[in-house]
Write a structure and sequence with these properties.
It is a single chain. The chain is mostly beta strands. Helix content is 0%, strand content 48%. The chain has 2 domains: 85 residues, no CATH class; 178 residues, Methylamine Dehydrogenase, Chain H (7 Propeller). The chain is built from no helices and 23 strands. Strands 1-2-3-6 form a 4-stranded antiparallel sheet, with no helix packed on it. It has a 4-stranded antiparallel sheet with strand order 10-11-12-13, with no helix packed on it. Strands 14-15-16-17 form a 4-stranded antiparallel sheet, with no helix packed on it.
């Protein structure tokens, strides 16, 4: 039984089964670099045996790959094909990646970033790129519980139910006024989900974003060119608005590149 599946790149899918066995599914084929000797992937299933513990998350940025195992260990792997654990000194809870950047969330609530920074997507206050993990100081004093990366922006949720965003904002995907097209520092989202709205889940698409509140409400904002916000009135939603798609509580939302998937149902006692 499949426990978790996520996209590695445009033609490859990683699958984790309930028996903690990892597989790579590739429609075109390629070369998987997870340490040891490289393994050809050609449209079937292969078991990743190079790491002692199955993968929980995997992402790839250009020639480097980053993976989180089910026991909370984080590894990077470059051209030498050997997994290396960077000196974080903390166990990792989650890894997320955009088109050219990545975030790492530790179990203590700290967030690190690396990759391309030309749109402020690293949250480090500048537009410089980083080849190694850098602590995002702007939210270092806030315990973060979840991270998500869009194409060129990031969204995080704190333990206290607040949301912070940074990066490219040309299409209002940050939930802030589009006056500033780039926001290089983590900034609190105050409109639309303020008051008693406690955010428990966040997700980013390429140019849009979504969240779920403790009350099971789903909110969306950003680019709506392809109807990914379920709104027919505008191609751009600059404010965080509630998705009035269903009268049932929303339990999960997932933004893909140009679409949004919502799981909504009533739990029976």
């Amino acid at each position: 039984m499949i426990e978790r599946a996520f996209e590695v790149n445009d033609d490859t899918l990683y699958v984790l089964t309930s028996a903690n066995i990892g597989y790579i599914i590739s429609s075109i084929g390629g070369q998987e670099r997870m340490g040891g000797e490289s393994t050809k992937v050609g449209g079937g299933l292969i078991t990743i045996n190079e790491l002692d513990t199955p993968l929980l998350h995997y992402c790839q940025l250009q020639s480097d790959c980053y993976c989180l195992t089910t026991d909370g260990n984080f590894y990077t792997c470059g051209q030498n094909l050997v997994p290396v654990a960077p000196p974080l000194m903390r166990r990792v809870r989650q890894v997320a990646n955009g088109l050219s950047h990545a975030l790492v969330l530790t179990e203590t609530g700290l967030v690190y970033s690396l990759g391309l920074g030309s749109h402020g997507q690293l949250g480090l206050g500048d537009l410089e790129s980083r080849s190694s993990l850098s602590l995002i100081e702007g939210i270092a004093g806030i315990k973060i519980k979840m991270i998500s990366c869009g194409g060129w922006h990031c969204l995080v949720a704190s333990e206290s139910g607040d949301m912070y965003s940074w990066g490219w904002n040309r299409h209002s995907q940050l939930g802030h006024s589009p006056t500033h097209s780039i926001v290089p520092d983590p900034t609190l989202i105050e409109e639309g989900v303020g008051g008693d709205q406690w955010v428990v889940y966040v997700s980013c698409g390429s140019l849009h974003s979504a969240c779920i509140t403790k009350e099971k409400g789903c909110y969306v904002w950003g680019w709506n060119r392809y109807g990914q916000l379920a709104q027919s009135s505008s191609s751009l939603i600059s404010n965080v608005i509630q998705m009035l798609l269903t009268s049932y509580p929303v339990h999960h939302v997932e933004c893909t590149h140009w679409s949004t998937i919502v799981l909504s149902f009533i739990e029976e006692l």
